[in-house]
Amino acid sequence: MPTERTKLTFKVASRKLLDAHASGLPISERYLIFDVHPKLALLATAGNDGRLILIDYERGEVVGNYLCDSKKRVRTVKFSPRGRMMVVGLSGGVIITFFLNYASEELNSQ
C-alpha cells in the first residue's frame, strides 16, 4: 500500500509522466493510462507515444522503458491478478503480452 509520502510524490511527478508520453501534443490530446502491480511496488504507464514505462514507486526509479510501436497508441495496460504477466493493447487491435521476471523471487514467494 503506498504511503502518504509516495502519493504526494506522484502528484508532483504526474505532469512529468504525462509529458514523457505526449510531449509536443496539445493538452487536449494528451492522455495517460496506468495500472499498479498487485503485489510489487510497480506502476505501469503508457500513452500517446506507444511507449510503456515501468516505475518502481518505492525507489522512485524507472525500471523499464519499452517502445511497443511508434505508429500506434497504447490504449490499455493491465497486470494479471498474480502479477506475472502484463497485457498492453494498442490502437488497431494489436495486443502485446509481457511475461515479468522483475523481482521474480518476490512473485514466486507470495
Summarize the topology.
Elements: H1 4-22, E1 32-36, E2 42-47, E3 51-56, E4 61-67, E5 74-79, E6 85-90, E7 95-99, H2 104-109
Antiparallel strand pairs: 1-2, 2-3, 3-4, 5-6, 6-7
Structure characterization notes:
The protein is an alpha+beta fold and 110 residues long. It has one domain. The chain has 2 helices and 7 strands. It has helices at residues 4-22, 104-109, and strands at 32-36, 42-47, 51-56, 61-67, 74-79, 85-90, 95-99. The strands form 2 sheets. Strands 1-2-3-4 form a 4-stranded antiparallel sheet, with helices on one face. The protein has a 3-stranded antiparallel sheet with strand order 5-6-7, with no helix packed on it. The protein starts with a helix and ends with a helix. Mean pLDDT is 77; it is low at 1-12.
SS strand fraction:
35-45%
What number of structural domains do the residues give? 1
Shape: globular
Structural class: alpha+beta
Low-confidence stretches at least 5 residues in length (pLDDT < 50)? 1-12
Helix content: 10-25%
What is the spatial order of strands in the main beta sheet? 1-2-3-4
Task: Report how far the terminal alpha carbons are from each other.
Answer: 15 Å
Please describe the biggest sheet, giving its number of strands, its sense, and whether it closes into a barrel. Answer: 4 strands, antiparallel
Rg result: 14 Å
- The overall pLDDT average reads 77
Order of helices and strands: HEEEEEEEH
Tell how many strands the DSSP assignment holds: 7
Count of alpha and pi helical runs: 2
